[in-house]
Amino acid sequence: MNTLYHYALSPFCRKVRLSLAEKKIEVGLVEERYWERDPDFMRRNPAGKVPVLKMDGMTMSDSAAICEYLEEAYPTPNLLPRDPKARFEARRLVGWFDDKFYHEVTAMLTGERVNRKVMGTGYPDSSNVKAGAKAIKYHLDYMAFLLEDRRWLAGNDMTLADFAAAAQLSCLDYTSDVDWNRSEAVKDWYAKIKSRPAFRSILADEVPGFTPAAHYADLDF
Amino acid sequence: MNTLYHYALSPFCRKVRLSLAEKKIEVGLVEERYWERDPDFMRRNPAGKVPVLKMDGMTMSDSAAICEYLEEAYPTPNLLPRDPKARFEARRLVGWFDDKFYHEVTAMLTGERVNRKVMGTGYPDSSNVKAGAKAIKYHLDYMAFLLEDRRWLAGNDMTLADFAAAAQLSCLDYTSDVDWNRSEAVKDWYAKIKSRPAFRSILADEVPGFTPAAHYADLDF
Question: Could you mention a single GO BP entry for this protein (chains A, B) (predicted)?
Fold first, then answer.
């Protein structure tokens, strides 16, 4: 049986869960309190982070490398386009959400509000929360700009870039940090991706002590 | 003419420069003081970072996406293995050096010692320098562990993982932050990669106001 060691509000785990589900690869989920650096877990994964995927005789870490592996070993359905330039654009946006969006927004909002308490690292830092609330506006506007002449973020087909973005936004939506009224295009895009069967397990996530926003799992939000 | 907007001591630019040179793709280098957020540069690259590569009618950012593009559009020589599992291992290590190693080591040492002064953000933070000096030992040991039964970091062939690692280490070597006596295997590996023609332009880099370590460009260090 394939096993994914994960943490519910990790956008990187969510990105991998979406890829696995879209490709119809069954996987057992094991919640991993990775910040406690359990020796068994550290042996499986010297980087000490989630996701870790046990599959095909490997113990894999690094969500970007995992998604590329899934794409090559399980190409149906394709989550990257065929043309190298279109593939570049999808990967550029995966990097944008995994790196820039995560550090500027998700770490500052969901990270401060939930993870600090769960991990026992103190109270939310209000200057970080303020910076995150400001940055998300810019990022939503950038997404709206991309969606002006594209059906999905990287072009006219759904790609890993949409999963990378939806993984971040769904964490932020759990903590009511997304203003869905800011852009009709972004809201429509999220409604489309949220209604996919691959999204179901993510909408069922619950972190003890933190109730998700009322509309979190609602397909008409 | 292809153009790479770069900053000499950015490991991500160095990784792309090594890929380009190994594939014999000619490129003009333009030094970009990206932290000054020049409006022209920001228009080319909304993420506001380097490297940015103008090539094949595209303006590309994100070093990981750029390297994957180069690999697909210019496959000779291959810098990723053919087998999906071996490709996973190479990409996992690229992620390790780009993300973990960079944040734990390069940002703490070269970042504090040089970039702060160049970018005018104050004096080095000595607790960061201390943390980086401690972390590099662990990372050199991890590399030595990998090299115990591999010729290169990800297996028996040279891959992007070696370039990702050498890009970080060469920045640290500029500021004399690598103890090459810690592991014979790591030193031998670096000597091999440092002597490749692709490395020449990196060994000629100079940042005004910071003289490189005496052995920086020496192939017998």
Answer: glutathione metabolic process
Closest CA to A18 of A67, A62, A64, A58: A67
Report ipTM for this prediction. Answer: 0.94
Domains of chain A: 3-73 (3.40.30.10), 84-203 (1.20.1050.10)
Residue pair B137/B182 in contact (Cβ under 8 Å)? The answer is yes
pLDDT tens-digit series, residues B36-72: 888 888 877 778 889 999 999 999 999 999 999 999 9
CA dist B208 → A74, B34, B115, B129, B216 (Å): 49, 16, 12, 21, 15
- The partner residue sitting opposite B73, judged by closest CB among A84, A95, A100, is A84
| Shortest Cα distance, chain A CAs vs residue B101, angstroms | 10
CA distances from A123 to A27, A71, A128, B58, B99 (A): 34, 39, 11, 44, 26
Q: Is the Cβ–Cβ distance between A133 and A105 less than 8 Å?
A: no
**Chain A CB contacts of B100 below 8 Å:** 47
For residues A26 and A71, what is the distance between their CA atoms, to the nearest angstrom?
15
HEC per residue, chain B: CCEEEECCCCHHHHHHHHHHHHCCCCCEEEECCHHHCCHHHHHHCCCCCCCEEEECCEEEECHHHHHHHHHHHCCCCCCCCCCHHHHHHHHHHHHHHHHHHHHHHHCCCHHHHHHHHHHCCCCCCHHHHHHHHHHHHHHHHHHHHHHCCCCECCECCCCHHHHHHHHHHHHHHHCCCCCCCCCHHHHHHHHHHHCCHHHHHHHCCCECCECCCCCCCCCCC
